[in-house]
Amino acid sequence: MRCSRILAALTAAMLFIVYSGCGGGEGKKDSGSGGATQAKAGDKAGGQAASAVVKGAIDVSLVTPEHFAAIVIHPQRLSSSPLVAEKLKDEKIAEAIKKFGLDPSEVEQIVVLLSMDEKQSEPIPVMLTRFTHDVDAKEILTKMQAAAAKKESKPIKEVTVAGKTCFDLGGEKNAGLAYAPSKNTIVLTMKENMEKVLASTEPKGPLYERIKKASADNDLIVAVELEKYPGLDKQIDAAKAGAPPMGQNYLDGAKTLRGVTLGLNLTGDSLLKIVLDTKDAAGAETVETLLKDGVKLLDGALAGLKQNVPKEAKADFADAFKLGDEALAGVSVIKGSSAVTIVLKRPASMDKVGPLVDKAIQAAMMGAMGGGQPRPMTMPTENEKSGPTLPGKSE
Questions:
Q1: What value does the mean pLDDT take over residues 376-394?
Q2: Residue 289: which of 255, 244, 333, 237 has the closest Cα?
Q3: Which 3 state secondary structure label does DSSP give 176?
Q4: Cα 13 to Cα 271: distance, rounded to the nearest angstrom
Q5: Is the terminal CB of the chain with fewer CB neighbours within 10 Å at N or C?
Q6: How large is the greatest C-alpha to C-alpha distance in the chain, in angstroms?
Q7: What's the pLDDT at 388?
Q8: What does the H/E/C string look like for 334-370?
Q9: Which of 3-7, 80-84, 179-183, 390-394 has the lowest mean pLDDT?
């Protein structure tokens, strides 16, 4: 892979923390969307604005017009919830944290940025990790490289790129290169991309504008400017060729989108908020129809699972089904002039989600197998055969 092993390992570790936080417990209140204080774009070159970032703000110092997607994770916030804090005491998890030398409770924020042009076969990532305190970048990188390597790793060397001291994580062309713009921040990308990162003077571009509207109080933020992804429409058309009618309708709906912003807040009143910006009003109507029909399909699928679980097992899955009912009941689809927002209220049963995950998977498997009993046979309607129909699209 073009992305370094350290980059992949760090991302996986932080996503694990996000998953672990799904039981959430006590914590912050949902502060709603938009308007969060962002990183200041003051100093020159190489993301030096990172040192001027207001604590708790989303660090946008490295965002350029070439970036089409951003993932923002707040590990410290996730690990501070009672349930996650207890899980981090687990012997195996504690051992893994010690091995990587990266305690999630000491990582304030991770920002992953993706860029791509038509000449590239896959996106080029940039990862910015901001700690809660000053760190020795070389020491942290050495520990992580050793933990992620399948064989003995090469020593990290200090090299100069565009007049800045960087850390070479390997001799290969596509190996990682790291840079510390401030005492509490480490930036990691591929060698071939570091000069471009260091040359950025101030954040700007469509993705920057999108991130500015996101709430920094979310545990996880995903922002995507679909129009900045080269050849996306061609890829969607290729995917449609082998897709069933229902899938084709949703792929057509995807072509009406301009960008997407997702905010996940595990302890807020709103668990999930997704804003889908469309190219025009007709696109908003299309997306609204698809989302509402999608909720109906999920509701029907949940009803099917309930029906197919054996009577003797229904009590075991009662909590899981209750969570599903609460989640679907808490879904709102709101259409604007050229955007559709889907909001999922935090289910009251959310605190039990950890142990419910396995039950939900088991229920899905039972449903697929008929629960060991003959599944009821029902004939689908014409609409069910083809899936949701797009507004203005002929049958």
A1: 48
A2: 333
A3: strand
A4: 22
A5: C
A6: 71
A7: 56
A8: EECCCEEEEEEECCHHHHHHHHHHHHHHHHHHHHHHH
A9: 3-7
Verdict on whether the full-model pTM lies above 0.90? no
The pair of three-digit structure tokens given for residue 201, joined into one six-digit string: 């003077």
Q: How far apart are CA 112 and CA 125, in angstroms?
A: 7
In a 3-state reduction of DSSP, which class is residue 364?
helix
Helix (H, G, I), strand (E, B) or coil at 160: strand
What contacts 223, CB < 8 A, 6 or more positions away? 69, 70, 72, 207, 210, 211, 214, 259, 260, 261, 262
- The amino acid present at 219, given as its one-letter code, is D
What mean pLDDT comes out for the span 153-163? 87
76-107 pLDDT, tens digit per residue, is: 887 776 556 666 777 777 777 777 767 888 89
What residue type is assigned to position 13 of the chain?
Answer: A
Instruction: Annotate 208-256 with DSSP letters as a single string.
Output: HHHHHTS-TTSSEEEEEEGGGSTTHHHHHHHHHHTS-HHHHHHHHHHTT
What pLDDT is stored for residue 356 in this prediction? 53
CB 126 within 8 A of CB 96: no
Q: CB neighbours (10 Å) of residue 376? A: 9
| CB 214 within 8 Å of CB 263 | yes
Total Cβ atoms within 10 A of residue 102? 22
Contact in structure between 86 and 41 (CB atoms under 8 Å): no
Q: What is the spatial distance between Cα 106 and Cα 79, in angstroms, rounded to a whole number? A: 9
Structure-token pair, residue 245 = 């009618």
Query: What whole-number percentage of the chain has pLDDT above 90?
Result: 44
Q: Is the pLDDT of residue 34 over 80?
A: no
Identity of the residue numbered 173: K
Q: Which range in 25-29, 92-96, 280-284 is most confidently predicted, on average pLDDT?
A: 280-284
Q: Is 163 helix (H, G, I), strand (E, B) or coil?
A: coil
Give yes or no for a contact between 350 and 271, defined as CB atoms under 8 angstroms apart.
yes
| Residue-averaged pLDDT of the chain | 78
Q: Where are the extended beta strands (E) located within the chain?
A: 67-73, 107-115, 124-131, 157-161, 164-168, 176-182, 185-190, 220-225, 257-264, 270-278, 331-335, 339-345
Q: How many residues does the chain have?
A: 395
Q: What is the DSSP letter of 25?
A: -
Specify the DSSP class assigned to residue 138: H
Query: Counting Cβ atoms within 10 Å, is residue 257 exposed (0-12), middle (13-18) or buried (19+)?
Result: buried
